[in-house]
Model the fold of this input.
Amino acid sequence: MSTTRRIASEFLGTALLLATVVGSGIMAEALAGGNVAVALLGNTIATGAILVVLITMLGPVSGAHFNPAVTLVMLASAEISKREAAFYMLAQIAGGLVGVWVAHLMFDLSVLQMSVKARTGTGQWIAEGVATFGLLVTILLTRRHRPESIPLSVGLYITAAYWFTASTSFANPAVTLARAFSDSFAGIRLADVPAFVVVQLIGAMLALFLSRWLLGDTGKSAA
Done:
């Protein structure tokens, strides 16, 4: 695939992911009657399901990163060039913002919003590190022997991580930033984004080092 097609794939996939995360959050909150657990369950199922679909259909085009943390790991493994990685990350961020705005339009909400939902503190930061670490370990280890299972594995992991992490598993810097621009169920204050992103990137790199060790790889790649 050409670089342009791969970048477009990353933009489209991240946009659809955020439209699903935010849109399902808005829908779930509206239908849950104040029951936060029910709203989270609706949000969780939609997010896990769309990840399976997106990775299945766009994986052959761009690798279906949709996540700067994934792209960073692939760059560290010399599986993508610095130039392409930069374009991937820009496409992911832009796609995430567009996805959020589309979700707002679908529900007749103001397109431009800023979240006021606080997500901060040691527990939240540890949770994001764990969530991103687990996501990257899932990807790196699954693709060694069962690459065809990556879409389902990632979808199921995120479904589980929504519930076992205190932060509900953002696990993605582009998703985290985009959700700061939605004052909805899925939102996060912009002031809380930098700390989330830092621990996400730390978790991703720890996952790369552990995966290489578990797989006995001393070279550049965990695959």
